[in-house]
Amino acid sequence: MRETLIMDFQYNTSIEKVWSALTDSNKLAQWVMDNDFKPEVGHRFQFRTQPAERWNGIIDCEVLTLDAPNRLSYTWVSGGQNNTVTWTLQDLGNVKVNLYLEQSGITNEYVLENAKRGWAAMSGTLEKVLAE
């Protein structure tokens, strides 16, 4: 089984602000996790958080696509999962942006449901970051 999680989020802000929240390491840390991200294709980085019972708290990533301010993708490798996360931004006009998330390569229902809950929670935090 290989599943793809697809989610859409809308924000009342500029596409540049959303792009910055996706590609600025400090802003990314405010709504996802601590990281050493750099907006460079081929850059290897990590998201880091507190370890859990069966997880070391580290997600290994590599930037695959960088098309400012429209598309960003990176690998997402952790806990036996090797996924690809792709963000696609669409300017809807009137200072409104659609942020489309696709996380592909998920191999079980438990990971799919956790990813769905996690990204939904983080999207709310992103909204607060964008309001700053």
From TrEMBL:
Domain Activator of Hsp90 ATPase homologue 1/2-like C-terminal: 12-130
Top-level taxonomy: Bacteria, Bacillati, Bacillota, Bacilli, Bacillales
Domain of life: Bacteria
SUPFAM superfamilies the record matches: Bet v1-like (SSF55961)
Organism: Paenibacillus radicis
Similarity-based family: Belongs to the AHA1 family.
InterPro entries noted in UniProt: ASHA1/2-like_C (IPR013538), START-like_dom_sf (IPR023393)
Listed name of the protein: SRPBCC domain-containing protein
